[in-house]
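Researcher: Let's do a round of design. I'm pasting the structure tokens now; please hold your answer until I've finished.
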């Protein structure tokens, strides 16, 4: 081997080493990451390698696999081992774990209402004490930060970061039948009502609706109420309706605002031929079967509002973009912008160590769900998650609709006390829609179930 070759080889090795050293200044973490907490910077520099962060939540089966695939790059970059254990009995198990002092470092809550219980008990740590405020405001629209802010024993804290989400403000339609009839996507509520009238005049029904779900019958109707509340009154009123700070601030179901939302819904659903099968079938039609008439020949109905999970109930072999499309449920009051009803997972911190802080910071970034977006089955609330990361075109389209939202709010019934959100609200809507009671009585009965202590 010549002297020149040996020197050249040595220089090449040195350059590689220097390049690796330059990369490790931010470690293996993406160079695009900015405004990192001190703990994430340390993790990316390899200073927290060998540490372990435990985590639990409701992800099991394929969701757990996809979650672990999504965090694997971060574990490789930093050497932090995130040990996730999913549970199908999460809600019961987490309460026992927290109260028994055996909770994991991070907990994934699919329902902020349950998280609120632990914040009020003083168990949850405030992530705003170490996360960069400019990063948070830049990577989430304000609504996500508002929904993460919960009152604790010593005042409001930011109780976690949002990670994987689902969209609800979606209307599905059968493409071939829709195009054959010459219908156009409505972008305003007035256009939607005009479309209803046009479809009825054409001899069909605009909407497929079903709210039967066994012991949970009525939940699909509560989603509609939440959609209309977001489109007819302020976010402050929505929050006081779902998660009031105290008894004095609570917006009653019998209030003019909630009564108006129900009236808007009833005026549409109860009009002749607007709902496939008529008003009398709504409460007895299984929610998963409700959209099926869209795929009949001829179509029995042309629209069905439901979250992005509903496609699993569509006929086998139907394809997005071919057999069905989706659009945003239009706004009613343009001054209220384009609100979007969502569900999703917020990750809260129960242990304060550098590696736990670093992992929470990671979860506040789109990179933490990148692999999941590519595999399908998730949407991201992060602004730094570009649409081209989505491997499923339908989810990419839904993500674009959510990205256009001016505000987001969580499913209201999931935020309310269980006796209401998973009890009197479901029942009251079902009784009213089926004609068992009038609207005034239904709303009063829902109010009566609200806990007083």
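Researcher: That's everything. Go ahead.
Model: Designed sequence:
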């Amino acid at each position: 081997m010549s002297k020149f070759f040996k020197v050249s080889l040595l220089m090449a090795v040195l350059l590689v080493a220097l390049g690796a050293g330059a990369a490790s200044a931010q470690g293996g973490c993406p160079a695009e990451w900015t405004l990192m907490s001190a703990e994430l910077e340390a993790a990316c520099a390899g200073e927290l390698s060998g540490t372990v962060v435990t985590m639990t939540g409701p992800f099991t089966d394929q969701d757990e696999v996809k979650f672990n695939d999504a965090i694997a790059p971060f574990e490789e970059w930093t050497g932090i081992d995130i040990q996730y254990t999913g549970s199908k009995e999460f809600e019961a198990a987490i309460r026992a774990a927290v109260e028994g002092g055996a909770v994991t470092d991070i907990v994934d809550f699919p329902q902020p209402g349950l998280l609120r219980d632990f914040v009020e008990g003083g168990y949850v740590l405030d992530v705003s004490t170490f996360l960069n405020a400019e990063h948070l405001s830049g990577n989430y629209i304000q609504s996500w930060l508002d929904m993460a802010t919960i009152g604790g024993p010593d005042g409001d804290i930011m109780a976690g970061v949002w990670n994987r989400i689902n969209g609800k403000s979606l209307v599905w339609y059968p493409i071939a039948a829709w195009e054959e009839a010459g219908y156009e996507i409505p972008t305003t509520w007035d256009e939607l009502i005009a479309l209803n009238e046009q479809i009825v005049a054409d001899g069909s029904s605009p909407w497929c609706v079903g709210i039967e779900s066994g012991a949970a019958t009525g939940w699909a109707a509560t989603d509609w109420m939440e959609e209309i509340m977001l489109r007819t009154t302020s976010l402050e009123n929505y929050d006081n309706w779902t998660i009031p700070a105290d008894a004095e601030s609570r917006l009653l179901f019998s209030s003019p605002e909630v009564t108006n939302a129900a009236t808007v819904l009833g005026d549409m659903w109860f009009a002749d031929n607007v709902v496939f099968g008529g008003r009398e079938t709504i409460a007895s039609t299984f929610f998963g079967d409700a959209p099926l008439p869209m795929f009949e020949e001829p179509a029995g109905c042309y629209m069905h509002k439901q979250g992005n999970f509903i496609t699993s109930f569509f006929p086998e072999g139907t394809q997005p973009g071919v057999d069905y499309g989706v659009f945003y449920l239009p706004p009613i009051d343009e001054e209220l912008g384009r609100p979007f009803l969502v569900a999703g997972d917020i990750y809260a911190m129960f242990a304060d160590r550098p590696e736990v802080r670093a992992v929470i910071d990671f979860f506040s970034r789109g990179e933490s769900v990148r692999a999941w977006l590519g595999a399908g089955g998730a949407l991201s609330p992060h602004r730094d998650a570009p649409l081209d990361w989505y491997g499923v075109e339908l989810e990419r389209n839904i993500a674009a609709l959510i990205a256009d939202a001016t505000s987001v709010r969580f499913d209201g019934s999931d935020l309310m006390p269980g006796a209401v959100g998973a009890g009197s609200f479901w029942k009251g809507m079902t009784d009213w829609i089926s004609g068992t009671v009038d609207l005034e009585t239904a709303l009063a009965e829902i109010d009566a179930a609200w806990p007083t202590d």
